[in-house]
Sequence to fold (344 residues):
Amino acid sequence: MVAKVLSCKYFPSSDTFDPQLGSTPSFAWRGIFFALQRLRLGFHWRIGMDSNVKMHVDRWGGSILMQLNSSYTDSSDAHVLCGEFMLPHSTQWNVNLVQRVFSVADVARILQCPMAPVACDRIVWSGHLKRVIPTTPDPIWLILSRLLVPPKIKLFGWRLGHDALPTASRLVQAGLSVGICCMCADGLKTIKHAFCECTMVVGLLSLAGFISLVTTATSSRAWLLSSFQQLPLHRFSLYLIILWNIWHQRNTFWHEGRLIPDWNLVQTCFSMFEGFIALESFSSATTMPELSISDRWHKPEATTVTINVDSACLPSNGCSTVGLLAGDHQGIVIAANVVPVEVP
Ligand SMILES: [Zn+2]
Fold:
């Protein structure tokens, strides 16, 4: 829904790669807008027949990005389009026209650029044929890839190591918080405070046996890396699970005003860790039987209607409802309903 709202407001008649910042952009949109400026540098238009791509403005090419040597005059009112140098409704360049307009080096490049045999242009990732591998992999990713934790906790670890969690100190920059820790009401809630210094966290870490890891590291990245060096892999995996649960505890307290006792939270962390280890051991020891063609999923017949059902119960008043969602064989929703349920 957020994507639809933003697209209606900021690029109603274009696409994500051609947005407008607007006169009074929100903080969220400003962040997305500037990220898009960086993101679009990694993409280009793969041209098709009668292409509408602006030849001297847009990034374009075939499978790889076209880079012209010379600069050419363009009009801001009526941009030169790639399609103007193609034979109509074909995948051929107009060789005579290309040779008349472009320099010798650019003629060779353009004529070697293939166009897709479709009547539309398509955005593609420019680096997919380059097989770009960073020469110095992110050490945070290297650590996370080895951990014995669920994927959602690895993702949390990445955000933690890159100072990308919405702590109160970060929300201050967006004008969404006064910056004070919601749990101890004492101190600016930075990552260091939230996971190391907060009085509501120190006891929990001590109970789980990690108090010695409270560190003087100046950045969350350095803190995570030094913690990894101090602990065996299993212990660090458990440590990250505890940090994830601390973060979850903070959100629960902020949104619902509930606090889970430390002993209960520590027990939950150990259970998560042991459960994941057991599941991993089971998965690696068990080989899944090969599915035959007939066992595999097939698209439903055209007359099929699928119905998904779910229910919810509000503990405060015991009110229960059942929701139904009906879809056709393409997965398109064709009907929905919510039905209150009388509970005896
Ligand atoms: Zn605190």
